Amino acid sequence: MNCVTLLTDFGLVDEYVGVMKGVIMTIHPAAAIVDLCHEIPPQDIAAAARMLRAAYPYFPGGTVHVCVVDPGVGTHRAVLAARADGHCFVGPDNGVLFPLLQEAAVEAVVRAERSEFFLPEISRTFHGRDIFAPVAAHLLRGVPITALGRTAAIDELVPLVLSKPQTGPDGTVTGAIISADRFGNLLTDIEHRHIAPLADAGTPIEIRVGDVTISGLSPHYGRPDGKTCRAVIGSRGHLEIAVSGGSARRRLQLRPGDPVVVRRKASDGMGGNP
């Protein structure tokens, strides 16, 4: 497999992404490079970790996934390479790979330290070009992951604990907004499995977010009207708050960390969806 994905917070205004691709193709001209995303909010390690974990299963086995969201570039933080679930992952030891490696079937994790697999000159500010890209290219060429450096245990890595919803004794699930996509849909940390005991049991439910109460789940975003708030299970399997034809982010003025509550519908039927 010659596929490599790139996930960064570089944006596309500067040359950084293009230069990484040039390095990869110089070392391995047959590489097929996929831009997973370059619009991660700057230094948002948690957002990158969530996106990588959600996306990698949809790529062929043997794909090398490179994640460069690296606020500690130039410091003594380690560079990691891992093989898990039949894929390879390259990224800084700052927590960005940690949630994925906690859940996946891990075959090997190493600290990439062998300089023969880097570019000859290493800058202090662009390890994406000088270390991450060449390491990925060498993995694509068939270099064994264990040749890159010393083995590392999962519990030796910098941890990253992503927010998780809490379930109360009555089944009420309390989670949080984690991000918004470019359509203004608000993504939450509540997965379908968290609310399935309520939603799949025929129990009427409601979703409280900001000053809005939404009655039940919608099977899709609905007809665009630019104003009706809907609760939808999105493509990642997470609860989303959407305004079809509009922006839930602008409509509700919510930010990451703001609470979202899923509960049995109040018997008096009060509340509503403006």
Which labels suit this protein?
274 residues, single chain, 14 strands, Rossmann fold, 6-stranded mixed beta sheet, 2 domains, Elongation Factor Tu (Ef-tu), domain 3, alpha+beta
- Unreliable stretches (pLDDT < 50, length at least 5) are none
Rg calculated over all Cα atoms: 21 Å
- What is the CATH architecture descriptor of the largest domain? 3-Layer(aba) Sandwich
Distance between the termini: 50 Å
Query: CATH homologous superfamily of the largest domain?
Result: S-adenosyl-l-methionine hydroxide adenosyltransferase, N-terminal
Domain count: 2
Structural class: alpha+beta
Strand content: 25-35%
| Count of helix runs | 6
Provide mean pLDDT, rounded: 93
Helix content: 10-25%
Give the CATH class of the largest domain.
Alpha Beta
Instruction: Write down the CATH topology of the largest domain.
Output: Rossmann fold
The biggest beta sheet reads: 8 strands, antiparallel
Order of helices and strands: EHEHEEEHEHEEEHEEEEHE
Number of strands: 14
Q: Give the overall silhouette.
A: elongated
Question: What does it look like?
Answer:
The protein has two domains: 3-156, S-adenosyl-l-methionine hydroxide adenosyltransferase, N-terminal (Rossmann fold, 3-Layer(aba) Sandwich); 166-264, Bacterial fluorinating enzyme like (Elongation Factor Tu (Ef-tu), domain 3, Beta Barrel), CATH 2.40.30.90. It is 20% helix and 28% strand. It has six helices and 14 strands. The strands form two sheets. Strands 7, 8, 9, 10, 11, 12, 13 and 14 form an eight-stranded antiparallel β-sheet that branches. A hairpin with a 4-residue loop joins strand 12 (229-233) and strand 13. The radius of gyration is 21 Å and the shape is elongated. The protein starts with a strand and ends in a 10-residue tail after the last strand.
